[in-house]
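Quick question, first post here. What does this chain look like in 3D?
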Amino acid sequence: MIYLELPQNGKSKAKRKPPALISKPKADRSTASDKPVPKLESETIIFENARCKVTKINRDGEVFVVKTCQQPDTIAAAAGEWTIEHRILSELRHPNVIRLLDHNARLLALRLEPLGSDLGKLADESGISTMSPDVQDRVLCGISSVLKFIHRNHATRYGQIHNGGTPYYIPPEVALLKKRGPPGDIWAFGVTMLFVLKVISLPKGRGWLIRDIPKGIGEAAFALTRWTIEMEEAALKLPSGHALVQRMLEPDQQKRITAAEVLAGLTTPAHMELHPPQTN
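> Answer (accepted):
Ran it through. Tokens below.
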């Protein structure tokens, strides 16, 4: 999970000290009158689908997030996904990556530091980004830094496409290669930046079934092709100074810019020139 401290209503969040662990407090010699029982003040479900649930909890003034894997019919698969995510978050040490505070293997739960602002909430009623140029730059720099770190340390899983995720961020190579890798992350980043830079509205809606894309036929494959073309055309409408984002949406993954190149390009004027569309 990528975490960015973005301003809300023009004000930055004050840093909280890390909350207590997820497990029960160790018994001590304090009496009930000496030490009050932690009070659960609020519990809000942030996200939930068939695979997981993310809950924001306020307990005794401390705020934290709990993510649980939930696939009751396939507990082995749920446990496998939980194990992978736990390993990844345990290995990652980056200021823009959600920090793992604690875990509970029996409940398939991960306790995480509070999430930052949801980019999707920084949009108007029509779905157009309301982010200022300063916030846009912070998103570009922050996510580039995280992706470079992750790709360099191989702290993720790649390979065969799986059913999870959001279809609007699936790269075009999935239809042909039946798999994805770091270039796919860059493609998804490019789509995100099109929204951040107010070129497209926030992608939302049911979309199409990801599991049907590798089959190469039917509505899913057609929808992915159509969406890819739309994103290529949208990239050509980018304002001056955003060549890096245009290169994130290169259809050929072999030619697509890398996270390291994005970071290098942020300080190189030559990379700021938009590339005209190539003709065969």
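The longest strand covers residues 40-48.
The longest helix spans residues 133-153.
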